[in-house]
Amino acid sequence: MSDEQKPSGGPESGSPESGGRAPADAGPGGPEPEEIRFFGTTWIHHDGGYGLRRAGVAVGSLALAAAGAVVLRFAFQGLEIAAVGSFVGILVVAGFAICSALAFRRTWDGFVRRPDPAARSAADKSSQGLMLIGFIGSLLAYFCRSLVEAPGEKLHRAEHTAARERYERRRGARTGNPAAKKFRPKKRR
Fold first, then answer.
1. Tell me, what's the pLDDT at 157?
2. Which of 114, 112, 104, 102 has the alpha carbon at shortest distance from 149?
């Protein structure tokens, strides 16, 4: 594949400063913004149906959370029919509540900062089960964040602004012919 045919934003075009996710320098126009799920790059100028997309994400995530709560209610009714006892019922409700709270917090933190790739450990990977159980918390985090902005917009905007500033500094430092400056003979008096 030639450079013109490669899709932008791939792993080969990532910069080390941004964790390899966003291109550092995407040609003459500067760094390209990273896409956000459901929003693409409409978050930059709030165009292309940005408001409708935010409303859709808010309504969709709330509807999915409600549907998930109904499914969990059916599961809880199954436990009541099985007559497992009140202790098991309390454990199930507490388990889902704790997992939902952890999933909410982890999803919310993902909107604010990128996870450190060096900090990912076996404990993080093993907590994926807790995140799956607490899916309602994750959906509620999407709902709450989409009321304010596109989920992750603040993080992406800060990274894009920093990449633009780095690009402008590098571009400003390269004005003129650097080779001519190095080998220019000094004037003698």
1. 87
2. 112
